[in-house]
Amino acid sequence: MNSIKYLPVLIFLFSSHFLAAQEEVTIQKTYIQATQKLLKNKKIKAAFQRIEHLDPITLERHIELTEIEAPPFKEDKRAQVFADYMNTLGMDSVWIDDVGNVLGLLKGTQGKRTVALDAHLDTVFPEGTEVKVRIQNDTLYAPGIGDDTRALSMLLTILETIKTEQIQSKDNLLFVGSVGEEGLGDLRGVKHLFRSGGPKIDSWIAIDGGAIGRVNTKALGSYRYRVTFKGPGGHSWGAFGLANPHHALGEAISTFVKVADSYTSEGPKTSYNVGVISGGTSINSIPFESVMEIDIRSVDPQRLDVMEEYLSTAVEEALAHQNKIKRQGPELTVSIDKIGNRPSGELSDELPLIQRTLAATQAFGVQPYLTRGSTNSNIPIAKGIPAVTIGRGGDGGKAHSLEEWWTNKEGHKAIQLALLILLMESGME
């Protein structure tokens, strides 16, 4: 089989969600030729021009959506505006499902398959965060301006372009504004879509990340936990000798880190991080509660289970030891709650969706590269359903911070690329 190979350099990405790897990319000649043929189509040429013409409107919607708060589990206000836009732009049907996902369906001429195009509605920022967009020169500053609000405006421009240019796909097109991609949302929106009895989705294209070129086809799995030690609490002097939840938590962390460090020093890459510690009321009070939240990730699902055992053992040993050395009062108790479970998985580079995405990216004069990341695509990838996550384009930085920024540096190209991939995968009449 004829193919073209590229060996990409190591690339440092816009978002820490993604891990770039130095690996060979093979693009089959058949897909390169099909891409070049489609690019000569008059409707595609007109669509690309339309996208450029809509650039100011895309930016207006981008800013409008960014200035609507969408904190974790509270995406409903942004969801309603996004749904209203899809209705106004001529989507065949629009609805908001039980968990808050916005879904818009364009029926294909054959309708035997459904290809989804996704951007997530939520941001990492809590309710009350100032989300007013500040414009300095040609740069937009606001929490969530890049991740992932830009992608939402891209979906609307793609929809408007398809309708205006009267483009008809063979397969059904499902536009998705998903909830719960960030943090403790735990991909709840996509998990709902791919549940048993959910809408049938045959191919999945998510827009979430940085520049054109990244093609995420491997799912980085993670487990997340909240560990809570509880005790009676009391005065640091008067009640001295009571079992101390903070002491237990500290011992649990120390014990876990020792064994986890040894285990993760070899074998498939695995990481661990205690990201949040809370509890206590004052320096001279024995706390009644001590809590930590911990994130564990691995490219190998089995190693996540091993790390879970290490964590459980460390916590139980710390509990037993602190209860043993207490001098008075009741014993400590502990709970370990799994608050996140993102599955791992990999797809073959030879899948048509992946080949089409690589060929389309290469047609834009960019060297494509494959990555592993934690995105909405984790769920379909783990189920063996063709899925990719591609970049939103432009230029940006400081994702997940109050100083997040994005610049419209040829941002229209990412929209053109997403449309091209969508029509290559769904078939165009």
Provide structural commentary.
The chain has 429 residues and is an alpha+beta fold. The chain folds into 2 domains: 3-219 and 344-426, Zn peptidases (Aminopeptidase, 3-Layer(aba) Sandwich), CATH 3.40.630.10; 221-342, 2-Layer Sandwich (Alpha-Beta Plaits). The protein has 11 helices and 22 strands. It has helices spanning 29-39, 42-53, 55-66, 76-88, 149-164, 188-193, 245-264, 301-325, 352-363, 378-382, 412-426, and strands at residues 3-6, 18-20, 25-28, 93-96, 102-106, 114-120, 134-136, 139-141, 172-178, 203-207, 214-219, 221-230, 234-235, 270-279, 285-286, 289-298, 333-342, 345-346, 369-373, 387-390, 395-397, 405-407. Strands 2, 4, 5, 6, 9, 10, 11, 18, 19 and 20 form a 10-stranded mixed β-sheet that branches. A 4-stranded antiparallel β-sheet has the order 7-8-22-21, with no helix packed on it. Helix 2 (42-53) runs antiparallel to helix 11, helix 5 (149-164) packs across helix 11 (412-426) and helix 7 runs antiparallel to helix 8. Mean pLDDT is 94; it is low at 4-22.
